Amino acid sequence: MNKNFWVSLLIMFLTIYTVRALPLTLLRKEIKSPFIRSFLYYVPYVSLSVMTFPAILTATSDVRSGLLGFAAAVVLAWVDGNLFKVSIGACLAVYAAELFLI
Predict the structure, then answer these.
(1) At a CB cut-off of 8 Å and minimum separation 6, what does 80 contact?
(2) What is the pLDDT of residues 56-87, one digit of tens each?
(3) Which CA distances in Å does 20 have to 14, 39, 54?
(4) pLDDT for position 75
(5) H-helix segments, 2-102
(6) How many CB atoms sit inside 10 A of residue 70's CB?
(7) Is there a contact between 86 and 77 (Cβ–Cβ < 8 Å)?
(8) 6-15, 18-27, 31-40 — which is least confidently predicted?
(9) CA 3 to chain centre
(10) Phi, psi (deg, nearest 5) at residue 2
């Protein structure tokens, strides 16, 4: 292994450790602000969405079929909420779009 790998690994370790250790060292009291609590509550959902949405659009051969699958998933999640049904419905919507429309 070359030196750049170990330097990169060290930088990644320090970055992740700092991000996780700073809240433990700086925030000793419970957060009482409703705004900050609600903001921190939604951070994992927003992070996951930001990472997932571009992959939805680029996973298919055409962006339109990805958007159709996304729209189908949103509608199915709104109506039923069952993750298995939502994923199967989105896959079927993308398959039908790729097969018939595009």
Answers:
(1) 86
(2) 888 888 899 999 999 999 999 999 888 999 99
(3) 10, 17, 26
(4) 95
(5) 3-26, 34-58, 63-79, 83-96
(6) 17
(7) yes
(8) 18-27
(9) 32
(10) -85, 170
